[in-house]
Amino acid sequence: MKLGIFGTLALMLLGAGLADAADRVVVIRAGHLLDTESGRSLGPQTIIVRDGAIAEIGASVPTPANARVIDLSAYTVLPGLIDAHTHLTIDQHDQDPLGELDHTAAERAFGSIPNARAVLLAGFTTVRDLGSYRALVDVALRDAINRGDVVGPRMYVAGAYVTITGGAGAVTGFAPDLNLPWDLRFGNANSASEVRERIRALAGQRVDVIKMFATGAILTHNSNPSAREATPEELSAGADEAHNFGLKLAVHAHGAEGIKAAIRAGAASIEHGTLMDDEGRALMKQHGTYLVPTLEVRDCVGGNYPPEFVAKAKQIMGFQLQNFRKAVEAGVKIAFGTDIGVCPFGQNGREFNLMVQNGMTPMQAIQAATMGGADLLGIADKVGSIRAGKLADLIAVRGDPLNNVRLLEDVRFVMKQGEVYKQD
User: What one-character-per-residue DSSP string does 90-136 give?
Assistant: First the structure.
């Protein structure tokens, strides 16, 4: 039978279409599977992935015809990890915020591309990115990833830091007669009404979360981490206005009084919580506020940072681990977060070992990076566990991370929404 050129082309297109359909069905054979909902490790499981979502899972699920099979029988499969405190647009090579004055927003945007890739390949399929010095660069990165232009994790972004003029998170330390460009002061707010106005502006730029500063910061010039900055009225306005737009409020807070003011105001999470006291822990339990501890930062603020920053880190961060242990003992809700960008991108997994060394079991630490993060971000219906109907965000390691949590520093397989980005 002679088909001619058009008939042959039609068959080729049909074949391509069937191949694409088959590619959309992926079968993963897991040697072990961590059920983060029950807190148990399961034996061999088969996971069927269709169109980027988990369709079926079980010990004896049949393999569909023509499906792509991925053999992970020598691995432990987990849900994709969630880092609830990242800064993917930070310049890893210049840790002084004054360096922002040497670069354009375009440079920051292009420079963030390898950062995003490194974090995804480390097994973190979702991140909550809590602010960019150059406002809205993180929004652009999120959208580029969503379009498929850039390889990176699913991002939930803050757009800019909402902080007092010259406060924590701001670019400071320059002569007072200089004026910053608009994108380096986009989040400045010095009253409750200005906080509301800034949050409205950020919501208009399609951010996913609001980030405010209740206290000073280690990594800001002329800033005292223990000192209160935002007032209770400003924090309450921030939480209320964020809620008006369906957004959650994340609050940076080192000092005990700033932590408590943020909790009372309605913050969804306290970032760092370095000097938290017993009253603060009780308030977190009462309000259901999450702690995002960012423990590894203590090991990364060193010789490549301005001496002022190093001195402040040494002064207060010795208290962080003991207060984290007390929070774990008190039953405070904890979501995994690294502040990555302070530490090298792609090393996010090192946080797990610190969490386990300071009071959490390996499963609790993994749940903080899956179920806890998903709940905090409001996306527990999509990610955080391996269940039919959720997105196919899956990672795998060789060995049992419940026996050696440091295996999560060496993720061997990464799938995000059904697409494989890394395979041993």
Answer: S-TT--SGGGGGGS-HHHHHHHHHHHHHHHHHTTEEEEEE---SSTT
| Residue 366 near residue 403 (C-beta atoms within 8 A) | no
d(CA 17, CA 32): 34
Do 33 and 129 have their domain in common? no
| Locus of tokens 């499969």 | 77
Read off the pTM: 0.93
Whether residue 40 is found in the same domain as residue 146: no
Number of domains within the chain: 2
Farthest CA pair distance, the chain = 84
pLDDT at 424: 86
**Residue 170 one-letter amino acid:** A
pLDDT reported for residue 231: 97
Q: How far apart are the first and last CA of the chain?
A: 45
Closest of 323, 318, 403, 390 to residue 80, by C-alpha: 390
Whether 284 and 370 map to the same domain: the answer is yes
Instruction: Give the CATH number, domain containing residue 417.
Output: 2.30.40.10
Count CB neighbours of 278 within 10 A: 11
Q: In terms of domains, do 88 and 67 share one? A: no
Question: Does 255 have pLDDT greater than 80?
Answer: yes
Backbone angles phi, psi at 32, to 5 degrees: -140, 155
Half-sphere exposure of 261 (CA within 13 A, CB side): 24
Shared domain check, 118 and 49: no
Whether residues 282 and 307 share a domain: the answer is: yes
Mean pLDDT of the chain: 93
Instruction: Tell whether 186 and 203 lie within a shared domain.
Output: yes
Residue pLDDT, tens place only, 288-337: 999 999 999 988 998 789 999 999 999 998 899 999 999 999 999 999 99
Residue 413 belongs to domain spanning: 4-80+385-422
pLDDT tens-digit readout, 12-62: 444 444 334 445 899 999 999 999 999 999 999 999 999 999 999 999 999
Residues 34 and 107 placed together within one structural domain of the fold: no
